[in-house]
């Protein structure tokens, strides 16, 4: 039995729905897929996963976007995992997004999974850097919004952002076999 979302979550989604659609559209555009998941489907799936979130207040826009960013990332990663399972020969599984077009090629699904794995590793060695990437890249937050959310200066967020992005690029390229180590 699932609980109903708190009125604060409903209010935040209603107030920022257009912004959430823009955010979802930018995620889907980054996947470079010819056919895309429906923007509305991604927003709605993320909203449904927020059922039970009770610590949000209606004025907490920045925290709300941070939570929605992480949730949208999880939706896309779950979808990519489903695509990868199909590639490995498993039977077709229902996709959690209703009425969704095929969006990710097998290669794009693999890239998204590699990025998610690298982000998980980054979280273990640099939790704040991982948060900055999630909030900036997946959440669309500004440097200032991210700094406020994390309780640090904008300069600190900028340094973390640059370092984490460079580390992720290196890790993803290595995991995808795009460059070889020099002996």
Fraction in helix: 55-70%
Q: What fraction of the residues are assigned to beta strands by DSSP?
A: under 5%
Along the chain, the helix and strand elements come as: HHHHHHH
Instruction: Report the strand count.
Output: 0
Notes on the protein architecture:
The structure is a single chain. The chain is mainly α. The protein has seven helices and no strands. It has helices spanning 7-30, 39-49, 61-87, 106-125, 127-138, 143-150, 154-175. The radius of gyration is 17 Å and the shape is globular. The chain starts with 6 loop residues before the first helix and ends in an 8-residue tail after the last helix.
Task: Provide key terms for this protein.
single chain; mainly alpha
Summarize the structure.
The chain has helices at residues 7-30, 39-49, 61-87, 106-125, 127-138, 143-150, 154-175. By secondary structure, it is mainly alpha-helical.
Secondary-structure blueprint of this entry?
Blueprint: H1 7-30, H2 39-49, H3 61-87, H4 106-125, H5 127-138, H6 143-150, H7 154-175
Helix pairs in contact: 1-2, 1-3, 2-3, 3-4, 3-5, 4-5, 4-7, 5-7, 6-7
